[in-house]
Design a protein that fits this description.
InterPro entries: DNA_mismatch_repair_MutS, DNA_mismatch_repair_MutS-lik_N, DNA_mismatch_repair_MutS/MSH, DNA_mismatch_repair_MutS_C, DNA_mismatch_repair_MutS_clamp, DNA_mismatch_repair_MutS_core, DNA_mismatch_repair_MutS_N, DNA_mismatch_repair_MutS_sf. This protein is an alpha/beta fold. The chain is built from 30 helices and 27 strands. Bound molecules: adenosine-5'-diphosphate.
Length: about 900
């Protein structure tokens, strides 16, 4: 909207000037009891918030579009805008409008964005709210991630798009800020925004200066050199972290004292789990409903505190790959299992502990209320008990947690002495500070209470003097203290009563004496309220000064909570401690699917075994009719491996887990319709990704590869994929491969490392019964028609299908497959065409395949040094014509 500034009223001009500094934000401009928005902001906000659009005289011909939200309900409106991806700048009145001379001074005090919002109402306490900075520079990505509500601040660097997406996935930030190079790099930002509901914005280049980024980090952490922070090897990472820091300063306009550390990490410390695998395995939310119920997190989360819940989630998002670290976690869980009485007791003490991480955030921000401090005190009360209980344990990790837990008794004592037990939420209305904490406060308080007695005395005296029986001293905010005389006694009012107000049935008066008393009482009250506010801020600041101790304790509490949770689930669900090896052997006896077994009410879950290694049992081809339980089984194996690597016990009778560096899954038809790709295209893209990025230490779960296309193409692709994966020269990853192509069972015996399994079913006449048990061997029938019958397809269709199936006879394709497999095996023996296992396909060139062709032979034989240019032209022309004729044939 074009606006002529010279015409604007002074307030509107100031509004426009402020808005100019925050062009990408909606500006909430405080006017009295409302935050108002004007012009384009008003149009956008009225729509987003469904509030009425009005107008305001602004000096221009037309009124300015305007909408507003009341200040006392601002949080909920803010949250709604931020959730929709808007940034909101809040311009506050910086002086009391009653006292201001001229235009009231207003300033932006904070900018609220999706990644920096701190209001408790807007945040899910079991989830971190991450802001991520991504910098693309010299072919590398610097990534820095911060949770402003807890003070967590991380940094890393990666080289490829894939790794970047893995990080984005791991943290699912609600906001990404990036440099222009990343914004323009061709990464599909729209897809990212939609998929994760996150805001992405490219920031001005001043955020990404190498020098300025180093400076802001050094200044914030009060350190002379970045090597002190362990950042020396993170050139691009430093820029990402510096930009995030600068952005936090600019939006929060606070000193961010609760951000006390920055943690560099290497992505190589954790198992790699890509986007679709996270979704397929339903680690923290279900695929369809995006709920927690029905996920691995749901099964494992018996944490008592918000900090524990967040830490457990990050354990699941980042399983470990170093054996020693996994064993340390296992030891902690095991020790808690063995001391379950102490564990239960720990749980009792953890239960009342509030979210210390976010509380200290609010305390540092100076937004914590007196009630927050009482919640803080209640939490602190538990710490000595938790510490004492932890002392009983001797495993490494639990010892470290005990060591890190500071009982913070001094802070408990401070709050206990200063803040009353049931304080108000507001800070400016008094009633916060305890009797005995501060002498002046006590004195003012007693003036206030004694004042009440004085008033009662005055009332009695005047009643007697005037004879007005109903005379009363009353108080209201507008008139202060007054005598009230009902109309029936009006005639008895003496001359020294000064009339203040007339009502229909009474009149109100004051006297000199009452006025004097009022001054003393109200003065004391006002002074007390102001003093209490100062005292409260003092207490809050004293706590804020201890932020490092509190954060360290919060981490210890989170850890204790997570291990108690893992232990309690392990005991309750009958999990076992898996032994962890680095030889690549996965041996699970009577394994169960952690989630399905818990979701089943009436039926019993049937446990199954698994054996995979890097030798003869690399790849299991799993057949069986639809609904037999193939994908449940495969996910179960992947989840058990993942649980083992996050340090949890696992649902099995016995388990030996070879550490996997990555888990890949390609399961079912992906519902990636939003991206506009066909199911088959999505499937093949995922297969391509797996084949390119898996290593021999990865675990692959492939369900129905090739299903999205015709039988012959599908079978051929599935076949070739198995050949590629099982070849130790090409990949050799451990794989579970479910398929409805029974022809693939022919591969056992012809390709090393491939073993057939099927999920048993029992035939009962024309029907089948699912046994859910995995056994060696291939299924020879698909039982599709029986499954259709079970699903309720009408009998007439079923019997017609039987007739057609009889005619078509699947036999043809099966026997042909057998022939090809056999031929493959035979030729392999004669070395005529080597098996994939024995050839490095990457070395096969175009010329290997066409070297016997006569055109190629002729090209090869040309004596170029003796040819004239015209000869060469003619020869080329002839060869080209020959080639074209051949294509025409
Ligand atoms: P498939 O992949 O072979 O089509 P699913 O794995 O989807 O079959 O399993 C079908 C249903 O069978 C699941 O919804 C589950 O409830 C049940 N199921 C699968 N495995 C088991 C098991 N081991 N024990 C009991 N029920 C199972």
């Amino acid at each position: 909207m074009e606006i002529d500034y010279s015409q604007l009223s002074p307030m509107m001009r100031h509004y426009m000037e402020t808005k100019k500094e925050y062009p990408d934000c909606i500006l909430f401009y405080r006017l009295g009891d409302f935050y108002e928005m004007f012009f384009d902001d008003a149009l956008a906000a009225s729509k987003a918030l469904e509030i009425t659009l009005t107008g305001k005289e602004c000096g221009l011909k037309e009124r300015a579009p305007m909408c507003g939200v009341p200040y006392h309900a601002v949080d909920s409106y803010l949250n709604r805008l931020v959730q929709k991806g808007y940034k909101v700048a809040i311009a506050e009145q910086m002086e009391d409008p009653k006292l201001a001379k001229g235009l009231v001074k207003r300033e932006v005090i904070r900018v609220v964005t999706p990644g920096t919002i701190t209001s408790a109402q807007a945040l899910d306490e079991t989830k971190n709210n991450y802001l991520m900075g991504v910098v693309y520079l010299d072919g590398r990505y610097g990534i820095s991630t911060a949770d402003i509500s807890t003070g967590e601040f991380l940094v890393t660097e990666v080289e490829s798009d894939r790794e970047l997406f893995d990080e984005i996935n791991k943290f699912s930030p609600s906001e990404i800020i990036c440099n222009n190079a990343f914004y323009m790099s061709g990464v599909d930002l729209e897809d990212l925004k939609n998929r994760y509901n996150m805001a992405i914005s490219a920031l001005d280049s001043h955020f990404f200066g190498d020098e300025s980024c180093r400076k802001i980090l050094k200044e914030h952490f009060k350190i002379g050199s970045l090597s002190g922070l362990g950042l020396e090897d993170y050139g691009t990472g430093i820029i990402a972290a510096g930009a995030v820091m600068e952005y936090m300063y600019e939006t929060q306009k606070s000193t961010l004292e609760h951000i006390t550390a920055i943690t560099p990490y290497s992505t190589g410390q954790y198992m790699v789990i890509d986007t679709s695998t996270r979704r397929n395995l339903e680690l923290v939310e279900t695929m369809r409903e995006k709920q927690k119920r029905g996920t691995l997190l749901w099964v494992l989360d018996k944490t008592k505190t918000a900090m524990g819940a967040r830490l457990l989630r990050s354990f699941i998002e980042q399983p470990l790959i170093h054996r020693s670290e996994i064993l340390r976690r296992q030891d902690a869980v095991e020790e808690l299992n063995m001391n379950y009485i102490s564990r239960e007791e720990l749980g009792e003490y953890l239960n009342p502990v509030y979210d210390l991480e976010r509380l200290i955030g609010r305390i540092s921000y100076k937004t914590a209320s007196p009630r927050d401090l009482i919640a803080f005190k209640t939490s602190l009360e538990m710490l000595p008990h938790i510490k004492k209980l932890l002392k009983e344990f001797c495993s490494d990790l639990l010892r470290e947690l005990e060591d890190g837990l500071d009982p913070l008794e001094d802070l408990w004592d401070l709050i206990d002495r200063s803040i009353v037990e049931d304080p108000p939420i507001t800070v400016r209305e008094g009633g916060i500070i305890k009797e005995g904490y501060h002498e002046e406060a006590d004195r003012l308080r007693s003036a206030k209470t004694e004042g009440k007695t004085w008033l009662a005395q005055l009332e009695a005296n005047e009643k007697e003097k005037t004879g007005i029986k109903t005379l009363k001293v009353k108080y209201n905010k507008v008139f202060g203290y007054y005598f009230e005389v009902t109309n029936s006694f009006k005639d008895m009012v003496p001359a020294y009563f000064v009339r203040k107000q007339t009502l229909t049935n009474a009149e109100r008066f004051t006297t000199d004496e009452l006025k004097q008393l009022e001054d003393v009482i109200l003065g004391a009250e006002e002074k007390l309220v102001a003093l209490e506010y100062d005292l409260f801020c003092g207490v809050r600041d004293a706590i804020a000064a201890q932020v490092v101790r509190i954060q360290q304790t919060a981490r210890a509490i989170a850890g204790t909570d997570v291990f108690c949770s893992l232990s309690s689930v392990a005991t309750r669900r009958n999990y076992v401690k898996p032994s962890i090896n680095e030889k690549g052997v996965i041996h699970i006896k009577n394994g169960r699917h952690p989630v399905v077994e818990q979701m089943m009410r009436d039926d019993l879950f049937v446990a199954n075994d698994t054996f995979l290694d890097n030798g003869k049992n690399r790849l299991s081809v799993i057949t069986g009719p639809n609904m037999a339980g193939k994908s449940t089984y495969m996910r179960q194996v992947a989840l058990i491996v993942l649980m083992a690597q996050l340090g949890s016990f696992v649902p099995a009778q016995e388990a030996e887990i070879g550490i996997c560096d990555r888990i890949f899954t390609r399961v079912g038809a992906s519902d990636d319709l939003a991206s506009g790709q066909s199911t088959f295209m999505v499937e093949m893209t995922e297969v391509a990704n797996i084949l390119r990025n898996a290593t021999r230490n990865s675990l692959l779960v492939l369900d129905e590869i090739g299903r999205g296309t015709s039988t012959f193409d599908g079978l051929s692709i599935a076949w070739a994929v198995i050949e590629h994966i099982s070849s130790t020269k090409l990949l050799g990853a451990k794989t579970l491969f479910a398929t409805h192509y029974h022809e693939l069972t022919e591969l056992e015996g012809t390709i090393a490392g491939v073993k057939n399994y099927c999920i048993a079913v029992k035939e009962q006449g024309d029907d089948i019964v699912f046994l859910r048990k995995i056994v060696r061997g291939g299924a020879d029938k698909s039982y599709g028609i029986q499954v259709a019958k079970l699903a309720g397809v009408p009998d007439s269709v079923i019997s017609r299908a039987r007739e057609i199936a009889g005619d078509l006879s699947e036999h043809d394709i099966t026997s042909r497959a057998r022939e090809i497999a056999q031929a493959n095996a035979n030729t392999a023996q004669h070395k005529a065409v080597p098996k994939p296992d024995e050839v490095d396909l990457q070395q096969l060139t175009f010329f290997d395949t066409v070297k016997d062709d006569d055109i190629i032979k002729e090209l090869d034989g040309l004596e170029l040094s003796t040819m004239t240019p015209i000869d060469a032209m003619n020869t080329l022309y002839r060869l080209q014509t020959k080639l074209k004729n051949r294509w025409k044939e």
